[in-house]
Each structure stands twice: as C-alpha cells, then as structure tokens.
Design a protein that fits this description.
Distance between the termini: 17 Å
Radius of gyration: 23 Å
Number of domains: 3
Protein name: MarR family transcriptional regulator
Keywords: Membrane, Transmembrane, Transmembrane helix
Strand order of the largest sheet: 1-2-3-4-5-6-7
Helix content: 25-40%
Order of helices and strands: HEHEEHEHEEEHEHHEEHEHEHEEH
Organism: Blautia obeum
Shape: globular
InterPro entries: WH_DNA-bd_sf (IPR036390)
Structural class: alpha+beta
Number of strands: 14
Length: 312
C-alpha cells in the first residue's frame, strides 16, 4: 500500500514522498494502535502521520479524540488513508476538516491547502454485492485489452439478453467507476480508471461464483459431460498454476444452469469421486487452457480477487 500511496501523491502533486516508522506509535494506547497501520510521511518538507484503518471507523467525534491523543506524542497533521470511500463519508470528513486520501481517487489535505477530487465511489444502489452476471461482465472487461464493451458484442459473447446486459451496465455505472454512452446506435460501457484501481475499489461488491458443491463419480462426470463444459477449479487449479496445494480429489467448475448430473453433498469415496462446483455464471466465458480464471478462483476461496493475478 505504501508504494501505491507514494506513486499516487507524487503523480498528482509532483512532490517527493517518503515514509518512515513513527516512534510515537509505541507510546499510544492499544485501542488506537490496534485500529490503524501508522507511518510518518514526509511530503517534500511537510511531515505528517498517515493512518490506514484496519477495521470499521468510529464516529467522527471519536476520530477527533483519537487524533488529539496521537498529537500529544507529536504535534503533526494526521491523514486518514483509504482504498475506497463513499460520498457520505467523504462529505462527513470534509465537513469535519479531517484530512484524507483515497488512493487513485481523491486528496483532501487542508493543512497543505489541497483539495483535489477526481471521483468518489457512489453507494451501489442495487444490492450489497453485484449480481452474478454483473461480476462476470466486470471480469470480462478486466481481462480485455480494450476499455470499451459494446452491448451487441456482450449479448453474443455472453449468450444472454440485451436486458441482462443493460442491467449489468447500469449496476457498474452506478459505482462511479464506469460510464455508458452511445456510438451511433451502439451502447457501450467504459471504465474511467485504470483496471487494477477499479478492481480494488469494487472488492467489497464481489462474491464467490460457487453456488453449490457436489461430489460425483469421476466416470459418470466424464461420460455425462464434455471436456469443454468442465474446468479445473479449487485445489486442482491451484496446482495447475504452481501453487502449493493438496488435491484430495479432482475439482471442476461447471455452469449450474446447464449441468444435469446429480451427486452427494459430502465426499463418500476419494478414489472414485470428483468435486464439482456449480457456478452462478458460466465458467467457460472466462476460462483458459482448461482451468478457471484467476479472479474467480480467488473468490471461490474467499480471498481478495487479485490474489492469483500475475504481475503485469
């Protein structure tokens, strides 16, 4: 995170940024140190303390008390650092004159006379998490080289109705990180930030693609499905990408809507059965070389989406 913050501030403000351990942290009470990662920051010749919350924030009044206690150790400006922020928290912090940085999005550093707002994240109005098809569309966009997705193309590639694509476009647009428009009669969706920034900002809206897991006879699975309908998942996929994992039984991902075989809820025989994950969306759309995509793989393990991405 330090490198991301450093790069962002240096890019936006054109100043030098350095981070150091802050000795004053050792004198603070546990109820403060357990809540934040702390760093002493030097923004050119201005020193301040950066706080990255580890858990849900307290109310503004409590935050001000925490700041006063921190400044008893050293009288420096205190800056909160977030990876995302909705409009309600943004307005509350600005009203209370509490400095903050949302990496890749916004700077509010009143002690330096700086208030730069690029974008803020709107509350996702439709639900706490994305609909499965919206998540599928987001991941498809993430893996593409082109920033724009066109409505007609998505209907053909994803095998769905225009209404379904329209709902997904709308839900992504409501995050404030995408915009929609038209080229002639063609409707498009376009990201407004760099793809890794968008992925990080939307992490809380993502969920596991796995709806259900069953165990099925390997023979029945091989005879009852085509190889193009099942894809290595779970520990089988981890082993395939070189991760340290144990494969008790082979694991596959399939599309729940089209899968017709039935199995047991528990593993009964590790020698004869395979694990089958029934997915909320079609894994074949994002799969490559016989195994599932890295974003969906990470979420199937309840890990951050970028866990298994290779560094570009």
């Amino acid at each position: 995170m330090n490198e991301q913050i450093k790069s962002y501030i240096e890019k936006i403000l054109g100043i030098s940024v350095q981070f150091h351990h802050w000795k004053g942290e050792l004198e603070l009470p546990f109820y403060i140190t357990e809540r934040y990662d702390m760093r002493l920051a030097e923004l050119d010749d201005i020193r301040c303390i950066f706080l990255s919350p580890k858990k849900k924030l307290n109310q503004i009044g409590s935050l001000k008390k925490q700041i006063r206690r921190i400044q008893m150790e050293e009288s420096l400006p205190v800056v909160f650092v977030f990876d995302k922020m909705d409009c309600y928290h943004r307005d509350a912090f600005i009203h209370a004159h509490l400095p903050f940085i949302v990496v890749g999005i916004q700077l509010y550093l009143p002690f330096m006379g700086i208030y730069l707002q690029e974008k803020y994240i709107k509350e996702i109005k439709t639900s706490d998490t994305f609909q499965p098809f919206t998540q599928l569309l987001l991941f498809y966009w993430y893996y593409q080289q082109e920033n724009c997705l066109y409505m007609n193309d998505m209907v053909k590639i994803l095998g769905c109705s225009a209404m379904t694509v329209t709902r997904a476009f709308r839900q992504l647009e409501e995050t404030g990180l995408f915009e929609t428009g038209k080229t002639g009669v063609q409707k498009y969706l376009k990201g407004t930030e760099e793809r890794n920034v968008i992925l990080q900002q939307l992490e809380d809206a993502l969920s596991t693609p796995v709806a259900e897991t069953v165990f099925i006879s390997k023979k029945e699975l091989e005879e009852g499905t085509d190889i193009s309908e099942r894809f290595l998942s779970g520990n089988s996929a981890l082993i395939r990408i070189g991760k340290d994992a144990e494969e008790e039984v082979p694991c596959y991902a399939v599309n729940k809507k089209t899968f017709h075989l039935s199995g047991s809820k528990e593993l009964l025989n590790a020698e004869t059965q395979a694990e089958v994950q029934l997915w909320k969306y079609d894994p074949s759309i994002l799969a490559k070389n016989g195994f599932i995509d890295p974003l969906s793989l990470a979420l199937s393990f309840q890990k951050p989406a970028d866990t298994f991405l290779k560094n570009d």
